[in-house]
Request: fold
Amino acid sequence: MRFTKMHGIGNDFIIIDAINQDIEWSELMKKWCDRHFGIGADGVILALPSRVADARMRIFNADGGEPEMCGNGIRCLGRFLWDKGLVRKNPMTVETLAGVLTLWLDVADGEVRAVTVDMGRPRFAPEEIPVSSPDNFITADLDGQAVRFCCVSMGNPHAVTFDCYPVDEAFYRFGPRMEHDPRLPRRANVEFCRLRADGGIDVRVWERGDGETLACGTGACAVVAAAASQGLSPRETDVHLPGGVLRIRWADDGQIYMTGPAERVFEGEV
Reply:
């Protein structure tokens, strides 16, 4: 079976053409993602045929769980579909568990330089996230500090805070603590944020099912939605993650657009 290793600002994936190859997934996903005994990745993405879009995406986290969507992953999939000639439309559409999304490819001399994705509308209603709270805010006691989280869905659940930005071992305590908070019944991706003087936002991400990752596309969108809705940042800004920068725009029509790179690392066979 052939695969391509790709990353979006450090958030890395094993991408497989499941249109022209039969594949058994299940426990293989966890083995492939293992960085010591496998290929190594934050997740596995399958490119599949779709009846409602140009292609369909299935993604599996390193723990074998299947999330609804992945922003960095869908940019990588868009470039993969283009590079392999599986979809030669620009824009192209991709079916996900969070709905059908539109991708615009910045192509120069036949090479995809960046991908912009219409990530849809952020959802703040507690039942849509979901979060067990009268509104979309929860407060947690983290090492004696009351930390407030704004919960947002970008097709998958996020808990975003601007109250603390842990840079040491506290991050590895706070991340799993919030991922598994009982008020978040489907668990959550957790974003710890710091506002920058230039209007951008620094973010560290603890991803549901993966732990610490260098970037999270849906997380960057959730961060801007949470910040702008509270008057903390403009509706268009740069989100600085450990792996790089994503440009996020929350348009007047309510849609959020994410722009960033998608890079090939290598190809292989298992």
Observations:
- The first strand starts at residue 2 and ends at 8.
- The CA atoms of residues 100 and 211 lie 27 Å apart.
- The chain has two domains: 2-119+259-269, 126-254.
- The first helix runs from residue 28 to 33.
